[in-house]
Amino acid sequence: MAITIKTKAEIDLMRESGHRLSKVFDIMKEALRPGMTTKDIDRIGEKAIRSLGGIPNFLNYNGFPASICVSVNDEVVHGIPDDERVIREGDIVSLDAGMIYKGWHSDAARTFAVGNISPEAEQLIRVTRECFFEGIKMARAGNYLHDISNAIADHADKYGYGIVEDLVGHGIGTHLHEDPEVPNFHVKSKGPKLHAGMTLAIEPMINAGCAEVDWLANDWTVVTMDGALSAHYENTIVIRDGDPEILTLVGDY
Ligand code: MG
Question: Per-residue pLDDT tens for 200-232?
């Protein structure tokens, strides 16, 4: 599939989808507390998506059984919400959510602290978010896709973190996953040239320990091979001639 260039009218709809998704994150962030289950978060997130006029795009995607991916501590991504899984003080919880609004997809992720967490966990969350912002400094027309990847990887490397290579960001539009793939690790080739109107979900997944990951028996949940913490930060953005616009970030987190 070729990389698609969105028109202004299409980007307006993607912005509407993204801004609504950012409200879903406001609601989930506000609700997250020790003692609730990962399924509670999924229910709250799905209800928010639907009440904002969206359709959860993760639900039933390749058979995924929920609307929100809820990944705790050493879980990298694709944690399956579970009525038995209780969130505890000191956990870090990665929430990945997306919606379809008037046919247009948005996709974002954040890792949140539950109560007091260790300084190491705080740093991992902060640096993972910074990796995204370092990456999008390169996300402008005329640059190349792997400029983004290399900027993300340079920042993670400063801290000796493990960069997940088995999963990557992606193009997004009328489909959740479109071309191109957006690696978070160093790539020697330039990759495709960036053009105004390309829409990308850029999503560093950064581990406090090694880069290697494993899949749980459910074949969805990705965990760090060494059991170290992992954080995730993602936004849907649109490439422009100057700075990109972040479509899924309205507030400051
Ligand atoms: Mg994504």
Answer: 999 999 999 999 999 999 999 999 999 999 999
| Domain spanning 8-246: CATH 3.90.640.10 | no
Residue 204, both tokens: 């560093």
Q: What separation in Å is there between the alpha carbon of 109 and the centre of ligand 1? A: 8
Nearest in space to 203 (alpha carbons), one of 71, 139, 108, 93: 108
To 5 degrees, how large is the angle CA 220–CA 226–CA 231? 60
Residue 36, Cβ density class (10 Å: 0-12 exposed, 13-18 middle, ≥19 buried): middle
Residue range 33-61: average pLDDT? 98
91 contacts 63 by C-beta, under 8 angstroms: no
How many A from CA of 128 to the centre of ligand 1? 15
Burial 99-125 (b: 16+ CB within 10 A, else e): bbbeebbbbbbbbbbbeebeeebeebb
* pTM metric for this prediction: 0.98
CA distance 49 to 47: 6
The per-residue pLDDT for range 1-17, each reduced to its tens digit, is 789 999 999 999 999 99
CA–centroid distance, residue 241 to ligand 1 (Å): 23
pLDDT in tens, 169-182: 999 999 999 999 99
Q: If you measure from the C-alpha of residue 8 to the centroid of ligand 1, how many angstroms do you get, rounded to a whole number?
A: 22
What is the secondary structure of 129-173 as a DSSP string? HHHHHHHHTT-STTSBHHHHHHHHHHHHHHTTPEEP-SS-EEE-S
**Cα 62 to middle of ligand 1, angstroms:** 14
Q: Helices 119-136 and 145-158: crossing angle, nearest 10°?
A: 160
